[in-house]
Amino acid sequence: MRTDLDQFSNKKLKNKENTPLAFDRKIFIYKSEWILKIKGKRNRLIDIFINPTSLQEEKINKIYNLPVEEITSPLSKFIGKKLIYMTHGLHIYPAKFIPQIPQLCIRKYSKPSEYVIDPFCGSGTTLVEAILLRRNAYGIDINPLAQLISRVKTTPLDLDELEFYYQQLIEFLDLGIKNKLTPLESIPNNSDFPNLEYWFSEKVRMELKQIQNQINLIENNQIREFFLLVLSTIIRKVSLADNDQLHPAKTKYAKIQKNHTIPTFEIFKSTISKKYKIMKHFSSFNFSNVKCEIIGKDATDIELTNGIDLAVTSPPYVNALDYVRIHKLEAFWAGLLKEKDILPLRQQFIGTENIYVDEYKELPQSPNKYLNEVLKKIYKMDKKRAGIIYKYFAEMTKNLGEIHRILNEKSKYCIVIGSNYINNILVPTPKILIELAESEFGFKNIKNYVYDIINRRLKIPRADHGGTIRKEWIIVLEK
Ligand SMILES: C[S@@+](CC[C@H](N)C(=O)[O-])C[C@H]1O[C@@H](n2cnc3c(N)ncnc32)[C@H](O)[C@@H]1O
């Protein structure tokens, strides 16, 4: 049964923004703001909302001579279950930010029904928060797997059809578990994708292909994409790659014989039942008055004319993760990547290490004095590295220009980023980005929040090269 939010909301349950959030029953009003609570330990209700007004009591410091507001303590409350409500926990994604960060920016700098964009949307954290808070959302990401995750996480499904296809898949998997499926004549191998036989035993390749074929029979695009994404979540588990390593690497103990016993059908069955519950819950809310769209793939060339009320993002770091390599196995099985796509795709990532010699033959010159000093030092030690850093800031400058172009006057661009040490030299990315935004496009840096980067599983702050606690910034730029 679909819960009609608009029906659910009544006069008492209107917040100051006058719109209900996409949750029922567990919504409370506190100081005229909506507070969402989710079930925690022993069924006790816990908050997942960060209160923007409470932050004003925090300390103001200076870093790189810029005023920053410390928000480590209010953010540190958000761990465990408080990070994976609704569809946030549907698929893992490296360097994903916690939902409370975009939530804070969206609540502080936009209103319901307005348009929010995340030009490096990754797994769609901003987009999910935006639609839960009743904003319209646009997402952009170069990584095809990120586009799929973002689309699925923000698309409520027809509950009857979802149930129908779910039951059909369960029946199919039960046949697989009982060994009653007809074996396939051809199984994916190295000619379909590089080293496929290295990563998956023959039995697993056969079973994954059988599941993939079955999912591809689903006519409803949105439901098919949901199940393909669920398939992507089990790929590491059924492969010979170590589940704990970011980049696929064979485990020390991985032996083909051992892998024969990996119960692919059982693992997929238990995973879809969990993900189905998440999707059913999310889809039971009415999102009809907001829309979310993935509008393209390049944050440096945005296919919109204007009309955006807020941009919130966490762009890649200077020494960016190699998302193509990290996700190549998942992307292959989700039907998103072929061998010929890998290299050209890699080259389009901001922060890519795949650059041409021509790009660093000479010491690159930036319009930013500070960046030029950093480049000069690094160029002496490592020419290619200097080229990579230069290119990173050049591409980020294009992105700043694109966001400036599509934002409405006085609207904000919130960028979540930290500094890096490269070849033992500090690259103060937040400072450089702020200076470039101001000097090249006339943005005004109206606020900066900072917080310690903590390992949320262990609740331990992560130290930097110099032994200091690493900070991440939320830079707020105004057009
Ligand atoms: C730090 S991640 C974003 C994570 C996201 N905030 C989340 O919560 O999942 C940075 C993203 O930038 C994307 N990216 C890199 N280069 C890009 C480009 N040229 N255009 C668009 N996206 C790009 C990567 O694919 C990656 O998903």
Tags for this model:
479 residues; Rossmann fold; disordered N terminus; binds S-adenosylmethionine
Structure summarized in a few sentences:
The protein is of the alpha/beta class and 479 residues long. The protein has helices at residues 5-8, 72-76, 100-109, 125-132, 144-153, 159-177, 196-199, 202-216, 221-238, 256-259, 264-283, 323-333, 342-347, 369-381, 383-406, 429-441; strands spanning 27-30, 33-39, 45-47, 60-63, 66-70, 115-118, 136-140, 292-296, 308-313, 407-418, 420-422, 425-427, 444-452, 454-455, 460-461, 471-478. The chain has two domains: 5-156 and 286-315 and 350-478, Vaccinia Virus protein VP39 (Rossmann fold, 3-Layer(aba) Sandwich); 159-283, no CATH class.
Report on the structure:
The chain is of the alpha/beta class. It folds into 2 domains: 5-156 and 286-315 and 350-478, Vaccinia Virus protein VP39 (Rossmann fold, 3-Layer(aba) Sandwich); 159-283, no CATH class. Helices cover 38% and strands 17% of the residues. It has 16 helices and 16 strands. It has helices at 5-8, 72-76, 100-109, 125-132, 144-153, 159-177, 196-199, 202-216, 221-238, 256-259, 264-283, 323-333, 342-347, 369-381, 383-406, 429-441; strands spanning 27-30, 33-39, 45-47, 60-63, 66-70, 115-118, 136-140, 292-296, 308-313, 407-418, 420-422, 425-427, 444-452, 454-455, 460-461, 471-478. The strands form 4 sheets. The chain has a 9-stranded mixed sheet, sandwiched between helices. The chain has a 3-stranded antiparallel sheet with strand order 1-2-3, with no helix packed on it. Strand 14 (454-455) and strand 15 form a beta hairpin. The longest helix has 24 residues, at 383-406. The chain is globular, with a radius of gyration of 23 Å. The relative contact order is 0.12. Mean pLDDT is 85; it is low at 1-35. The structure holds S-adenosylmethionine. S-adenosylmethionine (SAM) binds next to loops.
